[in-house]
Amino acid sequence: MYRSHVLVCGGTGCTSSGSAKIIESLHSEISKNGLKEEVAVVQTGCHGLCALGPIVIIYPEATFYAMVKEEDIPEIVSEHLLKGRIVTRLLYKEMVTDDGGIKSLNDTDFYKKQHRIALRNCGVINPENIDEYIGTNGYEALGKVLTEYSPDQVIQTILDSGLRGRGGGGFPTGLKWKLAKGNDADQKYVCCNADEGDPGAFMDRSVLEGDPHVVLEAMAIAGYAIGASQGYIYVRAEYPIAVDRLEIAIKQAREYGLLGKNIFGSGFDFDIDIRLGAGAFVCGEETALMTSIEGNRGEPRPRPPFPAQKGLFQKPTILNNVETYANIPQIILNGAEWFASMGTEKSKGTKVFALGGKINNTGLVEIPMGTSLRTVIDEIGGGIPNGKKFKAAQTGGPSGGCIPTEHFDIPIDYDNLISIGSMMGSGGLIVMDEDNCMVDIAKFFLEFTVDESCGKCTPCRIGTKRLHEILDKITNGQGTMDDLQKLEDLCYYIKDNALCGLGQTAPNPVLSTLRFFKDEYVAHVVDKKCPAGVCKALLSYVIDADKCKGCTLCARICPNGAIQGKVKEAHLIDQSKCIKCGACMEKCRFDAISKK
Amino acid sequence: MKSLEELKAIREKMQGQIGIRNESSEQTRVIVGMATCGIASGARPVLTALSDAVQAKGLTNVAVTQTGCIGLCQYEPIVEVLEPGKDKVTYVKMTPEKALEVVNQHLIHGQVIQKYTIAEVLG
User: I want to staple A362 with a disulfide (CB 3.0 to 4.6 A). Which of A51, A233, A297, A300 is the partner?
Assistant: First the structure.
């Protein structure tokens, strides 16, 4: 038995900032100090505060050390673990109170408004040890449904809970299961969509890395509910740690008989295999994903027939997202009413958001549905860095839209987001400040969809390309007011005619920025100006002759020889040669260079 | 594993161990003095005995932690028990055996072992 547990984050974020080295160093320092029998080092999944990684938490004191370096380990071991003295300088600064005391992690701004259901084990258990998952009531829900529930009771529980798909569409999960159960077939399938492709979203990766067994357990429950004996997890190959831990988890679950034949002696058989995605965004679309599992090129197919009728290998299939599954065992154990007591009228439970962009606390947060954007950004996210002004929040990735300041207090749920022209999507939340150009943002997302369009249907293949060309024209200062109208018409045309969700939602970033930030488009078209100073073709760097001391630094730094001037005389930028890299402005010590 | 009983056995075994990662403010805290004086007079076996017993008995609401010197070096090893809403109890001159008695009588049954407390020993 160990008196103390040292938890080190082994998620992708902390691993890339060096947590593996920290674990190594902890092991060697701990044995050097003779504490090997007393202190356990546990590699966990993501804690959510990725901006402060690598993260080390020491229990039972629940001390949260942030941005730990390998050099800090000898001090942590000899001070904290040996002598019981907390190394204050490494503490997460939010935990230190004004009078120098230490408050609980759960009382910090980042964690206190969160409610962790899908992420409950992430950062708490060792994902490579099935016993730790069982120790937090793992596989109890599976045992309960196999011994006490009929498949219809399972489906009714999920229906009553109000759980909706967390991958983007928000379709009621229980209804999906009910439809699949209603279709008789000799074989049915349960699939898990772990092909998380939205730029900036990484909650599915975190669940797979931090708590892989929860997905296996939920898939087995789903299999029992609809009458399937085989499951597939479609996970992108760019998530090597997640794939690794899933493989370990499946192996352990098979050894324990929690996957395989006759689970818990109930006569129910269920097994799971992994299929790796090669990184095509469209494979996150349900029909394309199934086509890809079948071994074909990942292209969507028309619906109907829906997967619940003819899905994988033409058999009835359900496909749910990782985060959706992560909620299932908790709903079975705590009851549908418990889950339905959280959230808003039509969106129950919690949602995980990946906070990114211009925000202080980059990371993963899980909040009850109905929390306002203001709470998420100002309180949990810690506001916007460098005292800049908030401009918009982008949700739903390339399928979503930008939410401006005036909707800052809207309670976040599926329907509210759609009503303001965005969508929940998988939960990416990118914060933008006054330095972001909204036309440029729309262009960025369109560039992504043009790249990722599979090409099967014309509206998406050619339509998104044309949208991108018009946006490019506008950001180059060659747009006309007619172009704005054309842009909008084309958006609606693509929405109405594209084959799959990717194409139908691809115009959303353009439509929502046109709706809320039309003035920025007009400034680009009419005044030939980019108000945020992003679009290079529309800005010029100028030297203020009064401020310029003639130090010649800018002239020497300019990579294109565009700056002329004699020593101790005001310099001048030759606009025809300037490539707008901004190097001169960055280096000028007299603040004499500005963008216009 | 073919039965719910086997699952339950693993769960109960693990709950005692993972309970250490609890963050409830309702926790009872057992603090062992682990400065040079404490370690020299044998605080380490006391600490491990306490922590093993707490986990073996599955007392998930108890956290066993360390602290530095509290200035009563001649009475080390010192163990303090802080229960929410109650006065602090300070045990002095502890041994692993005495520590086990504290777990059984004080932490489980709520009875302070007066003869080991600082008030009794100091007279």
Answer: A51
Q: Is A140 in contact with B11 (Cβ distance < 8 A)?
A: yes
Percent of chain A with pLDDT over 90: 82
Q: What is the pLDDT of residues A54-104, one digit of tens each?
A: 999 998 888 899 999 999 999 999 889 988 888 989 999 888 888 877 787
Average pLDDT of span A175-200: 94
Closest approach of A7 to chain B, Cα-based (Å): 9
Q: Among candidates A220, A294, A322, which has minimal Cα distance to A261?
A: A220
Q: Please give the backbone phi and psi of residue A427, each rounded to the nearest 5 degrees, phi first.
A: 110, 20
User: Cα–Cα distance between A253 and A271 in angstroms, integer?
Assistant: 10
Q: What is the pLDDT of residue B57?
A: 86
Chain B residues in contact with A104 by the CB 8 A cut-off are 23, 25
How many domains does one find in chain B? Answer: 1
Contact A84/B7, CB-based, under 8 Å? Answer: no
Name the token pair of A330: 């908790």
Residues of chain B neighbouring A47 (CB-CB closer than 8 A): none
Amino acid at site A38: E
Mark yes or no for CB contact A135/B13 under 8 Å: yes
- In the chain, the amino acid numbered A527 is D
What is the rounded (10 degree) CA torsion for A414, A417, A422, A427? -50
Average pLDDT for A126-153: 96
**A234-284: per-residue pLDDT in tens?**
999 999 999 999 999 999 999 999 999 999 999 999 999 999 998 899 999
Question: In the prediction, which pLDDT does A544 show?
Answer: 92
Please judge whether A125 and B63 are an interchain contact, meaning their C-beta atoms are less than 8 angstroms apart.
Answer: no
* Cα of A212 vs its chain's centroid, Å: 17
Average pLDDT over residues A216-227: 98
**What one-letter code names the amino acid at A492?**
Y
* CB contacts, 8 Å: A138 with chain B: 11
Q: Is A323 helix (H, G, I), strand (E, B) or coil?
A: helix
User: Residues A556-575: what's their mean pLDDT?
Assistant: 92
Task: Give the closest-approach CA distance of A148 to chain B in angstroms.
Answer: 12
- CATH number of the domain where residue B72 is located: 3.40.30.10
Question: The domain containing residue B21 runs over which residues?
Answer: 4-122
Contacts of A108 in chain B (CB under 8 A): none
Report yes or no: A204 and A245 within 8 Å, Cβ to Cβ: no
Determine the Cα–Cα distance for residues A41 and A468; give it in Å rounded to an integer: 51
Average of per-residue pLDDT across A503-511: 95
pLDDT at site B63 = 85
Contacts of A38 in chain B (CB under 8 A): 47-48, 51
A94-106 exposure pattern, b = at least 16 Cβ within 10 A, e = fewer: bbeeeeeebeebe
User: Hey, are the CB atoms on A62 and B23 less than 8 Å from each other?
Assistant: yes
Complete domains list, chain A, with CATH: 4-109 (3.40.30.10), 130-339 (3.40.50.11540), 350-433 (3.10.20.600), 438-527 (1.20.1440.230), 540-595 (3.30.70.20)
The pLDDT of residue B29 is 87
pTM: 0.89
Comparing CB atoms, the residue among A60, A137, A257 nearest residue B64 is A60
How far is the first Cα of chain A from the last one, in angstroms, to the nearest whole number?
Answer: 66
Sole residue written with tokens 């260079």? A593
A3 touches chain B (CB under 8 A): yes
Q: Does A1 touch chain B (CB under 8 A)?
A: yes
Q: Which residues of B touch A135 (CB under 8 A)?
A: 10-11, 13-15, 17-18
pLDDT at A437 over 90: yes
For residue B11, the one-letter residue type is: R
Residue A43 in tokens: 């590699």
Residues from B in contact with A at Cβ < 8 Å = 1-4, 7, 10-11, 13-15, 17-18, 20-23, 25, 32, 34-35, 47-48, 50-52, 55-56, 63-68
